[in-house]
Give the backbone structure.
Amino acid sequence: MIKIKKTTPLTTDTISLLAKVTVSLGLAVVVIYLFRIKHFPTSIAIGDSFIFATSSFSFAIIYLLLSIPIVVTAHFAARFFLGIFNRIANKELFLRKTISTFASHSLAFSPYFLLLLTNSYFLYDYIGDISTIFLVMFILFIILLHKTNTNMENKHIFCVLILLLPALVSLRLTGYIIDRSMELTGIRKDNVTFHLDERTRESICKIDSNISCNENTFFGKILFKMGNEYVIELSGKKFVIYPDSIAFLYE
């Protein structure tokens, strides 16, 4: 009973802190996304904790799925490179031993490498960003692993900074992750076919003459879908409309 009484406050404080961090991260993700689409709706408030928490979890899942394979593969490549470099420097380069060491370690890292290849295949437009992150992480691990006097107590800080580094190296890829997390949350919808009422079509046509008023269906994006206003994108331009003026045909 004594142990339970001692650990319960710590567990409660930890859960409370985790909830606050989750909501704060979700709030940051939503705010950054609103800056990206350059629209600040009145239908969202600080009290929407569920939306912020969902956005936080969505961003964390997608971000970790993309960043962890890059970090782990770069770490493996740096360790293998330093191993060969040290053997050459000490004149202990044995081909058989080098190959066996590489084979034994590569089995543990192969799932991350395959996931990295899969991410690179599906994110072909961002292959340059992924390569840049990999190169930066590779150089960073070379520096960290080369220093043998690294303080063990600070390794958890290194892990946090290393996981945050990919987001800072490529803001373009981070923006893509934020967009996908908003889509997973349900705030954003890409590649949507929808129908607009006549009054909304006439208003849009007056703003953009490239959009035909005679069309009943439109193909575009929904950048923000919440509360009493939607933000849609047609022909590269953004429009704010009311929910009762739009009907979704295909999502």
The first strand starts at residue 189 and ends at 196. The CA atoms of residues 89 and 169 lie 32 Å apart.
